[in-house]
């Protein structure tokens, strides 16, 4: 299995292509620029099976509808954010962009935790709220990677001052769900470069009792 990071949309949000050797592909958080994403998929001869959303803030969903229609694939999201795709007030585009970024309702609503089987992919779904109430992380044990969305970043954590955010909840999510993964697990975040669980356990200032200024 391999993966590719593609920053997209107005904030350069990381979209990810997660690929099997047979060409099967999952698309995580297509935040915008559907044409750019489509060119990359064709270049890699990938066969998209689904769109997985870590959460539904506007910068993670901007290309959802175009990608869904082009490739005729379903969208997965946590049920707590089922209305965020269609509501620019909830997804933040109305506040931060001065306009509406929306998509149609998700095809599959996730709740609780467990295994998610899509084609030849098998992922573990973790609820990691705090940045948003329905934030999810997707873990591939076989590939040794976790798509953490805006929960955990290299040297930082997600902001919690947006509607539905909660700092204590986020810290708890990271400690209980992400830092319990093998230390060599690669963390693929919604913004910035990749990191590892070990690095964040050892050096992330937000997880070690103080904050960097």
Attribute tags:
six-stranded mixed β-sheet; 30% strand; 7 helices; 14 strands; Metallo-beta-lactamase, Chain A; globular; alpha/beta; 213 residues
What topology does this entry show?
Elements lengths: L1 E7 L4 E7 L4 E5 L5 H10 L3 E6 L5 H4 L2 H8 L3 E4 L9 H4 L1 H4 L11 E3 L3 E5 L2 E7 L8 E5 L4 E5 L2 E2 L2 E2 L9 H12 L7 E4 L5 E2 H7 L10
Parallel strand pairs: 3-4, 4-5, 5-6, 10-13
Antiparallel strand pairs: 1-2, 2-3, 7-8, 8-9, 9-10, 11-12, 13-14
GO molecular function: hydrolase activity; metal ion binding
Keywords: Hydrolase, Metal-binding, Zinc
Organism: Metabacillus lacus
Please describe what this structure looks like:
The termini are far apart. The protein is built from seven helices and 14 strands. It has 213 residues and is α/β, with parallel strands linked by helices. The strands form three sheets. It has a six-stranded mixed β-sheet, covered by helices on one side. It has a six-stranded mixed β-sheet with strand order 7-8-9-10-13-14. A two-stranded antiparallel sheet has the order 11-12. The protein has helices spanning 34-43, 58-61, 64-71, 88-91, 93-96, 167-178, 197-203, and strands at 2-8, 13-19, 24-28, 47-52, 75-78, 108-110, 114-118, 121-127, 136-140, 145-149, 152-153, 156-157, 186-189, 195-196. Helices cover 23% and strands 30% of the residues. The mean pLDDT is 94. It has a single domain (2-207), classed as Ribonuclease Z/Hydroxyacylglutathione hydrolase-like (Metallo-beta-lactamase, Chain A), CATH 3.60.15.
